Amino acid sequence: MQKFARITPSHPTRCCGVSKIIMNEDILTENFISDLFREDELGAVIRAHLYVEKYVDELLGLLFPYPKELKPLKLDFDGKLCLIAALGVNSTVKKPLSILGGIRNKFAHRPNYKLDKSQIKNLYSSLGSNDKELLHRVYKGIRKDYSEWQNLPDYNLLEPKEQFVLLAIVIRTIISMVKQEISERNA
Question: pTM score, two decimals?
Fold first, then answer.
């Protein structure tokens, strides 16, 4: 198995507009963005986690020569994150994924659970400085591209759900970029 240096997305701010990141694959689809904004908090959290876990599974498929052999381990999301970290994915990538998983678990196991500012602040704090910059660029692009968002306040004044959606977009972008870089290294 090929060893990888600590893997971090090398171009976290390659964003031009909201729905485009210059790569081989369309990371920020209009559907993902509009679906998350359209959902209530529960739906946005669960849907974001589903997309992110799909990318984590694909990443494991790239890191292991025989990924189907992992199935009997019945890894939960946190177990998958530990594996990708052990295989060289930088902890700066793992931390926001882990916090996202924790938020998802709270929604899955507590009826009527609601996002709060402290959780959002914790998730935001888990991002690296380049990823925070990307978040603000994404928000600026959404405000430009979506008429219903043009008159919204600065990021810090948004409701927790809207902040979560923006964070989910960035987290999905981060894991997608790591996946693409590993795919390119394997080619």
Answer: 0.83
Tokens of residue 90, six digits:
């930088």
Q: What is the pLDDT of residues 124-156, one digit of tens each?
A: 999 999 999 999 998 888 888 877 778 889 899
Distance CA(117)–CA(123), nearest Å, equals 10
C-alpha to C-alpha distance for 37 and 166, rounded to whole angstroms:
9
Q: In the predicted model, is pLDDT for residue 9 greater than 90?
A: no
